[in-house]
What does this fold into?
Amino acid sequence: MDIPTNLKYTKSHEWVRLEDDGTATIGITRHAQELLGDMVFVEIPQVGRKLKQREECAVVESVKAAADVYAPISGEVIAINPELESAPEKVNEDAFSAWLFKLKPTNAADLDGLLDAAGYQKVLESEAH
Amino acid sequence: MLKTTPLNQTHRDMNAKMVDFGGWDMPLHYGSQLDEHHKVRSDAGMFDVSHMLAVDIKGETARAFLRQLFANNVDKLTQPGKALYSCMLNPQGGVIDDLIVYFLTESWFRVVVNAGTADKDMAWMQARRDELAPGLEITPRRDLAMIAVQGPNARTKVWQVIAGSQAVTESLKLFHAATFNEYFIARTGYTGEDGFEIILPATGAADFWNALHAAGVAPAGLGARDTLRLEAGMNLYGQDMDETTNPLESGLAWTVDLKSERDFIGKQALLQIPVKQQLIGLLLLDRGVLRSHQKVIARHDDKETAGEITSGGFSPTLNQSIALARLPSQVSAGDEVQVVVRDKMLRAKVVKYPFVRNGKSLI
It folds into this structure.
């Protein structure tokens, strides 16, 4: 599976893109959407909410199940993807561009603990066994 | 080690996502559960239901035995090929399984039971046979496969594939079956659409499946089967009813014959148990998805009562979440109730089901 090398990852299948302005864009990985199947509802945290790293902050619901999304890093929610309310299937179509929300990070050290593409690939391989 | 149907390799060849379904290795979907759902509502889809078990009951005492064994009355079956939906109850009135029974001849009935309960059902039927009808043959038919072809164009596609079958099955009414060559063709289903459920020798299953596919019938997995049956308001054993619930509180009173003189296992219990709950539909008014086991809170006469969702999900046809819920009998259609979804209380409207029939919303 192609795992973009410009993103960072968590073991719980979120991706993080660090933007030039210092903010972070967050979504769920292609593997996560594949496990869940057709997406029918996405619940995203409100703008202004302050999240702690690994806090449950969003829910993605597919025809099959509901899954929690965890904040990959601490920060304040500064934007949510308005498309997903009416078109949650965007997550199935292209998980790596259908972002859920953007954070202003509050703890730079959080970023160091994220996985790179190779590290995330290993997580997927270990889950497959 | 998971059990497999005769179509297991065929599913894998079609890139199905396979899942463990009660010990069976079954297709969940072949790419998109939603697409499969819509295909069945608008055209034709097919399901491998060979994990379900056909059981042949043969002998002169067959009808008399089934009269006692099932809550519905097999005396309603007078015409060969006619089918009847029924529950099989324990003496406490709890549901051992729900099933379809076909009347073929006075000495041959065929029963189709759920996959997850098949072993338990066989043991129960054989034990009751030993008491009530020794000598009756009860034979599980694992040599047979079952394929459900469902949708507005399903019957036409089947006729294209099984040359000559149209003449024999075109006049079949709902819940009737006919035999044509090696095919047992029933006008039944679990989707709320027209179509056939076809029982055939396991050895011919893959060729038949591939021929249907070539005729334009879309393979559909257990995922779509579940959203289709939920929209159609059809009970799922193990979720909407089981051995701890009775048919009267499971939306199945219409399948229980309490009026005739006939005695059947579970009848005395059903006559005595006060019915305080009902199975009824919910339509979610807020955004979200209803799921089984979520708590439902209803208010009537200034009192709060609680119930539970037994089956919930997203309705692709209505583009809204729906559910079957077991609620106190005082709740009625039109009421608004609240459902506890994670840390939130969502509003839902109580409705009569089915939600969808023959491609159209009934809500």
Q: What stands out?
A: The interface with chain A takes residues 17, 28-29, 32-34, 223, 227, 287-289, 291, 313-314, 316, 321, 342 of chain B (CB under 8 Å).
